[in-house]
Each structure stands twice: as structure tokens, then as C-alpha cells.
């Protein structure tokens, strides 16, 4: 019988990394990757890569069956699911469906391996392109700003935020006690916007709700709260989109200068425009152009603070850290 001491988890981590690479190739398909394929015409196809990974995972699963049954089961499930995928279709929609499934297999393995001290290779969280999620992200920011713009009473907005957060957290609690509810919420209700890792960790909407409740309960100025939710709503998704497409100058990990600049510019423009259109009276002005100039420092600080925190929010959920950081940074600038 093979003991766990005689085995190494590094080959399992390598399987996980290859799954990660397969997802990235399926989802992003950048010009650099296409050029690499053209220069290496004999490189294995997506379907062949999946088949090879399936065989490797199954073989490793047999090796770990006695020593670590949970690792063996994960590998066997990954092998079975990979072998069932049809990667022969070249359409974008077919690739997207396949990448979502493979991303789930990767996150399942990575979650277990991240807890193992002997695994030294980094296993990053997968954040594949998801335009539906991006739209939802922007809509959440606009919705929060709209509530506090047209219902300026703090107590009213706090009640709405508490109700929203309570709903999110009640679903979080329910899915912790039922795998059926968890699968239904992750795959069906929020399937279009959920990330693979959110099958077992608290989702971003819950973290956003908690941040909003904390800002309102702490008495953060109203315009700072509006700037915070708008900054998160537009800056975070645009930073990801621009960074993945054009990010060449890396700053922290996979995060790029180009993505951070997109964050600052988009957030500053949206915050300044929103305040100029809806909040001239808050600045004691009647002209929207004059309000735009008056709001510019607050808007710029919001963008810079949000982008800075987004860069370093690796372990802390940025849907929580960004709005709180922006609220704190702009509190002294808000009239």
C-alpha cells in the first residue's frame, strides 16, 4: 500500500495548472496564443490536451486512492468529466461552455491543494471573462448610487441595504447546509454571473452589501458613499477587461498598469459626471459645468484610491475593500 509520505502532491498541482492554462486558452484566445499555435502546427489540439489531462488525472487518482481518498476522488471526477467534454467544436459559445466546466474542475482541485503546505506552486483563482457579470457589476453600482441620490435620507437607504444584505447572507447560509441548494443557486439562479470559486466561498454581492451597510452605519458622507459604489461598479470590471486585453506592463501579479489606468479614468469620469448631473445643490452651485470642476478632486481621489486597493486586494475581497477605501479617502472632500 502506498503511503502519503511516499507520494508528492506536486504532480497533482501540475494537473491543476494545466487545467488553468486550458481554461485561459479557451476563454481568452489572444492573438499571441493564436500566433504560437500557427508557429507550432503540431501542438496538441484542445481536445487532445483535455484527453491527456484526463488520463493523467485518472492515473494519479489511482496512486492516491489509499493514501488520500479525497484527493483520489477529486482526480477521478476531474478525469471523468474531462473525458466527457466535447472540445471538437470551434464556436465561441461552445468554447465558453467548456471553459466554465473545466474552470470548476480546476477550482475544485486548487481549493484542496491551497491548504497543503507542501504545494509551493501558486494556484491563482480563475477569473475568466464574463460580460454578463460585468453588466451586473455596473448595474449594482448604478443602483446603489440611484437609491442614495433620489432617497437622500440615510435611514431609508440603510434599511434597503440591510434588506439586500440579509437576503444575500440568508442564501449564503442556506447553501452551506444543503449541497442541493448550493448547486441550484450557483449553477441555475446565479449561473450566468458566478465565478467557479463561488461554489464554496461567499459571493461578491454579499461582500458588497456588507460594505454598503458599514459605510451607511458609520455615517460616511452621502456623496462619498455614492462615489464608492460608482467607483466599484465601473472601475473593477473595466480594469479586468482592459488588463486582460491590453495589459502588458504588470504591476502586481497578473494586474497591469493598463488595467489600473482604465480603473482610475473610468471611475473618475463616472463619479464626476454623476455628481455634476445630479448633485449641483450639494456643492452650493447651479451650473453643471461648475459642479463638474468642483467635483473633479473628489472623483479623481475616488479613482486613484479604488485602483490602488484593487491592486493589492488579493486575499481580501475587493467588492468589500474598494468601496470602504474610496469612502474613507473621499470623506474629507465631500461637501
How is this structure best described in words?
- α1 (10-28) packs antiparallel against α5 and α10 (222-246) packs across α12.
- The N and C termini lie far apart (71 Å).
- The protein is mainly alpha-helical.
- It has a two-stranded antiparallel ribbon.
- It has helices at residues 10-28, 31-39, 46-63, 69-84, 92-113, 131-150, 154-177, 179-189, 204-217, 222-246, 257-278, 288-312, 318-330; strands spanning 250-252, 255-256.
- It contains 13 helices and 2 strands; from the N terminus they run ααααααααααββααα.
Number of helices: 13
Unreliable stretches: 30-39
Mean pLDDT: 84
Report the portion of residues in β strands: under 5%
First-last Cα distance: 71 Å
Total number of distinct structural domains: 2
The geometry reads as elongated
Structure classification: mainly alpha
Instruction: Write the element-wise H/E pattern from the N-terminal end onward.
Output: HHHHHHHHHHEEHHH
Helix content: over 70%
Taking the sheet with the most strands, its summary is:
2 strands, antiparallel
The overall strand count is: 2
Strand order of the largest sheet: 1-2
How large, in whole angstroms, is the Cα Rg? Answer: 23 Å
What are the defining features of this structure?
single chain; 335 residues; mainly alpha; 2 domains; two-stranded antiparallel sheet; 13 helices; elongated
Amino acid at each position: 500500500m502506498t503511503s502519503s509520505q511516499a507520494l508528492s502532491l506536486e504532480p497533482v498541482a501540475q494537473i491543476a495548472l494545466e487545467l488553468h492554462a486550458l481554461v485561459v486558452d479557451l476563454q481568452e484566445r489572444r492573438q499571441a496564443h493564436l500566433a504560437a499555435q500557427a508557429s507550432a502546427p503540431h501542438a496538441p489540439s484542445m481536445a487532445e490536451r483535455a484527453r491527456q489531462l484526463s488520463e493523467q488525472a485518472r492515473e494519479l487518482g489511482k496512486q492516491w486512492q489509499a493514501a488520500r481518498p479525497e484527493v483520489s476522488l477529486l482526480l477521478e471526477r476531474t478525469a471523468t468529466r474531462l473525458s466527457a467534454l466535447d472540445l471538437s467544436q470551434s464556436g465561441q459559445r461552445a468554447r465558453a461552455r467548456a471553459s466554465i466546466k473545466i474552470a470548476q474542475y480546476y477550482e475544485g482541485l486548487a481549493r484542496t491543494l491551497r491548504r497543503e503546505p507542501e504545494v509551493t506552486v501558486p494556484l491563482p483563482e480563475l477569473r475568466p471573462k464574463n460580460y454578463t457579470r460585468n453588466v451586473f457589476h455596473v448595474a449594482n453600482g448604478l443602483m446603489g448610487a440611484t437609491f442614495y441620490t433620489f432617497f437622500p435620507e440615510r435611514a431609508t437607504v440603510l434599511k434597503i441595504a440591510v434588506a439586500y444584505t440579509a437576503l444575500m447572507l440568508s442564501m449564503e447560509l442556506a447553501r452551506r447546509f444543503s449541497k442541493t441548494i448550493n448547486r441550484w443557486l450557483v449553477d441555475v439562479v446565479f449561473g450566468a454571473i458566478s465565478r467557479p470559486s463561488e461554489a464554496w466561498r461567499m459571493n461578491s454581492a454579499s461582500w458588497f452589501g456588507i460594505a454598503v451597510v458599514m459605510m451607511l452605519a458609520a455615517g460616511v458622507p452621502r456623496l462619498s458613499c455614492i462615489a464608492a459604489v460608482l467607483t466599484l461598479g465601473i472601475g473593477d470590471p473595466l480594469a479586468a477587461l482592459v488588463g486582460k486585453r491590453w495589459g502588458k506592463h504588470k504591476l502586481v501579479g497578473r494586474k497591469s498598469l493598463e488595467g489600473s489606468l482604465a480603473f482610475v479614468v473610468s471611475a473618475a469620469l463616472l463619479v464626476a459626471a454623476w455628481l455634476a448631473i445630479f448633485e449641483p445643490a450639494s456643492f452650493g452651485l447651479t451650473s453643471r459645468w461648475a459642479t463638474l470642476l468642483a467635483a473633479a478632486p473628489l472623483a479623481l481621489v475616488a479613482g486613484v484610491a479604488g485602483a490602488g486597493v484593487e491592486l493589492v486586494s488579493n486575499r481580501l475581497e475587493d467588492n468589500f475593500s474598494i468601496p470602504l477605501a474610496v469612502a474613507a479617502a473621499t470623506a474629507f472632500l465631500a461637501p
